[in-house]
Amino acid sequence: MRYADASLTSTQAAGQTATQAGSSSGENSSPSSSTPSSSSSVSSSLKDGTYSGTVVSTNRGDFQVDLTVSGGKVTNVKVLEYPQDPTSQSINEQAIPVYVKEALAAQSAQIQLVSGATETFNGFTGSLQDAINQAQGSK
């Protein structure tokens, strides 16, 4: 694993489209126990600050997300860690920008799965939900 800056601001994310996600093969689509157990789209209860979600392990590797809240809203989502093997890297380059855009729009971890990127989804949303819980004071 290596740390990588895969962040998008809400302005940058607006330029991304879900059609860029495409359909990638080679990623294990088995369910992971790291999927978020709860989530909230009520951003008004979020405390301003930066929160690092827990590292979530998937069959492909570890994911960690950093969340920035300003004015009670999620203003930035940055992926600190994600798998870098060739197959995962190809999938993540397509899926992560879509997941970041959707998380910013939804103000929550309840986002749509990109076909072929289940492990990325599980790691991203699991770590994101933990960061949201911290911002809500739930942790």
Structural account:
InterPro entries: FMN-bd (IPR007329). The chain is built from three helices and six strands, in the order ββαββββαα. The protein is of the alpha+beta class and 139 residues long. The protein has one domain (2-16, 44-135): Sufe protein. Chain: A (Alpha-Beta Complex), CATH 3.90.1010. Strands 1, 2, 3, 4, 5 and 6 form a six-stranded antiparallel β-sheet that branches. The longest helix has 21 residues, at 86-106.
Helix-residue proportion: 25-40%
Which radius of gyration do the C-alpha atoms yield? Answer: 14 Å
Major β-sheet, in short?
6 strands, antiparallel
* Proper CATH architecture: Alpha-Beta Complex
Could you tell me the mean pLDDT?
Answer: 79
Work out the count of structural domains. 1
Could you state the order of secondary-structure elements as H and E?
EEHEEEEHH
Regions with pLDDT < 50 over 5+ consecutive residues?
A: 1-43
Q: How large is the count of helical segments?
A: 3
| Beta-strand percentage range | 15-25%
Described by its quaternary structure, the protein is single chain
Q: The CATH topology, please?
A: Sufe protein. Chain: A
User: Judging from the principal axes of the Cα atoms, what is the shape?
Assistant: globular
How far is it from the N-terminal to the C-terminal residue, by CA? 26 Å
Question: Care to count the β-strands?
Answer: 6
Tell me the structural class: alpha+beta
The CATH class name reads Alpha Beta
